[in-house]
Amino acid sequence: MKQSIVKELIWMCIITACIPLLIAFMMAQSDIIFIIILITTLPFFLFSFWMITYVRKRMIAPLSILAEEAQKISQGNLSHRISYKKEDEFGRFISAFDQMRNTLHLQEQQQQSFEKERKHFIDSISHDLKTPIASISAYIEALQDGMAEGPEEEQLYLQVIQKKVHVLNDLSNQLSLSYETPDTIHLETQSINCYEWAVDWLENILVECQTMGIHAQLENQLNSKDASNFCIDVYQLDRALQNILNNAYRYAKEFLSVKTSLDAASFKIYMANDGARLHNTQIHRIFERFYTEELHNADGHLGLGLYITDTLVQAMDGKITAAVKDGRIYFEITFPIVSI
Known about the structure:
Helix Hairpins
């Protein structure tokens, strides 16, 4: 129940005003002044003691709590919760003060997380840029010094340089989207037939797998008569799905499956492989920015790929989920069907 210090003080004032009237009435009714003074002095003494106690508990005590907590906050301690049980004016003020403290504490935690993330980002970029640049520099110096024994070896050096340049280009593309959100990313969307898109996409995957010697189970459950469309940015969707495929190409051992299907309300893409490198308890982190199970490497893997995939899919009103079971990782991407 809400209480009011103001109301209680008003009642105290009323009682205080009534006591002199009571004394005057008793004096008018009796000639025994000593007894009257004795009788009236005790209530005054008790009332004064009650008044002092009330002010100390209901005013001075909460102010002392506020002063103590404000001192802790000024020293940087924002984690301590301010406890005050009464729901009077001071209680509501302390509650608002504690909400402010909690907001500041959450902001401090977010800032600490951001600083940790920023440090990890700088460390990753520093290493992952340095490695291909050093490799490019070494091969260029070798070509300049004539270390290649013939045209074939020179061509081999140039191929390595080209590969490292592609790594740098991939890093640049990832960084361009590293701090984008589904609301800020620019898309050029268009309505695309689900069946036609699925056929083209699966054909491209088949060519990639054949080139790399990977056996993949590819299945298109859509019918050529399906006229359903979904609204996407073709380039960005291909980019998002390629991030998942690249991980599958790198980690899959014997199993790689890609499937498309359609129901009354959505177009779905299923991707799975047996190269899971994390436990199901960590799956909730898989779409976090910079999250990776790998240490620094020379191939430019910053832990941004799946974060970018999640961002792009959400920007196209889609949804992506992931799960790990029996050493396999499963992805499900869903897009709503749109009317033509």
